[in-house]
Amino acid sequence: MSSTFESTFIGRQPIFDTHENIWGYELLYRSSGGAVCADIKDGNLATAKVISDGFLLVCEELKKSQKLLINFPEELLASEAGFALPPETCIIEILENVSATENVLKSIQLLAKHKFTFALDDFTGQVELEPFLPYVKIVKIDILLLSDMSKVAKIVQNLKKYSVDILAEKVEDRETYLALQKMGFNLFQGYFFSRPETITGRKISSNSITKINLLKELGSDSFDIARIVSNIKTDTSISYRLMKYANMAGINPGNRINSIERAVTILGKRQLVQWLRAIILSDLNPSMKAEELSFMAVNRGCFLEMLAEENNFLKFKPESLFVYGMFSLVTVILNLSMETILKYLALEEQIESALLENNHTANLLLDLVKSYERWDSDKIKELTLQLSLDIERTNLLYKKSFKKTHRTMLSSQKH
């Protein structure tokens, strides 16, 4: 069986306020755990990886008022990819090499209408960056790019006509920090405070078939939510990341999002499309494949969903048993404890209890699935009897679920 997960690495550098409290973090792409700086060959891919994996990796430790700055290259900025992120937490950082084209400015205006905040990177007074100033709330100035403090003071003075916070980058000693504070800077970043740290996590590699299907759906003129949901449900990785994202992004505060259908509905078309594009781009050419375990996980979900549609198992909803079956393998895939994983999924208590092996009926159902996977006929007979199931009908449903899963996951190979 091939490996089914890959490591993901994100640099995180804290940003401090005038009281030396952590105001937020800048998220930085890292190609490996040992990397101390970004090795970026494709800015769009780097940002997509930060959006799809970095946000989920670091936001669990984020305090309510803290913010995340994420670099956006020109192409992603113009494509409105910012909608993949929650505006309450994330600030879109406009890089210094972004041109103020009509498309870019239109995208910024649209995102601003939806309460997104912007920062401008490495500003040294460039005339070509001035069109961005009316839209940004933070201007970043790299102290080491400027030869003396008088130039810094002049830039700060010129920025006073805009309602912006000014962030000093590469602050390396207390003397500089205090001088910048007096000058009017109110946010600070640099080795004097903290070097960037690399956060390591694991993500499941999404399978290539699902990506092909989703790319086709996202590019279609007739956007079909039902087909999008159907495709997402064939992939354990995207399903897990979607539900974790929907429950951590402050999208629907106070309410548990416990099904894929609900997560898709809550996100809405615009945010869903941009998030999926980031996920797909970040997973292109993964180093390890997930097809084998993904197939098994999806088939478990499909079989239990079919059983629930025909039987009343303590009022389990079919879509809930689909999630239960699919996520029954997520501990193997991610090599994390179920307790850790459940912190991010906000499932129904009944399903959480089942995944923690505390629900007798659900655990019998999972044992039944495992017996079919081994084709242990004696155990199948014993469990169908315990669950009051017709064995011939149950055998037929398992065969149907297997064929359905196979057909669904492989159908796009014909296109």
From TrEMBL:
It holds the Pfam family HDOD. Residues 1-210 form the EAL domain. Residues 204-393 form the HDOD domain. InterPro entries: dGMP_Pdiesterase_EAL/HD-GYP, EAL_dom, EAL_sf, HDOD, RNase_Y/CdgJ. Coiled coil: none annotated. This is EAL domain-containing protein.
